[in-house]
Fold:
Amino acid sequence: MRTYPQCIPCLINQGLNAVRKLNLGRELEKEIALRSLKLLSQFESLDRSPAYYAYFVQQIVKEISGTQDPFYEMKRFANEKAREILGSLTEPQSLEEALKLSCVGNYIDFAIRDVKDIEREVGELLRKEFYVWDYCAFSERLESSRSVLILGDNAGEIVFDKPLVKALKKLGKEVIYAVKGKPILNDATYGDALEVSMTELCKVVSNGSDKVGTWIEECSEEFRDIFYGSDIVISKGQANFETLNDSDRDIFFLLIAKCEPIASETEGRVRELIFKYKRG
Structure:
């Protein structure tokens, strides 16, 4: 996926939102905005994915905040809040219900969203049907598959992926869950997988990278072997879609479209549930 013109202010706002969430103050907010604008203006053409440029904006955030994991406390809170919400919901009784719950978990992104009314919004989303629902293709592939790789997205969201892992294992599938190799934004790392006990459910692997999304060329050899060797890949979230939509293998994308460019690329709609199959 290439960067749309409307992605540019979003990239700037992503950095600014980090400053606000981290309470770094107005002066540092201004510095991040100016440095991000200068950074983006250095590219002759924005022909890469939005996630590609977001990575460099987040390096500015790390530098100015003085820490390599500026979202650490936010991730701890997100995991705790997600466990609280999940505990109040009815346990999924089918694979379809587990897929929906995992998709709705993609909405829990405290790096861009306030905590207020999150339980109500999750409830509203769970009452929706999928706008893009390539389940028939998934079911057909799953029947003859042995292994499933899930590409995780955010902290907090990882909690909502656990019922999906359980549902796939109940069907006799080997499930591997992939997380980031190093902190970037509020993406889930191995520490988050430990914290929410994902490591007790299935094998958890690092992708060996700290890039926004999944840049296959930047990932570890071990991860690339798993990525291409798994029978099915389920990719969570927008950044993974942005970086893998042109991948040379089959992928099932599971996400909620949070902006018009993603809605357009997935043939979905903003704030709708999407389970989209892409052939390699």
Q: What stands out?
A: The longest strand covers residues 174-179. Residues 195 and 240 are 23 Å apart (CA to CA). The first helix runs from residue 7 to 22. Residues 7-65 form one domain.
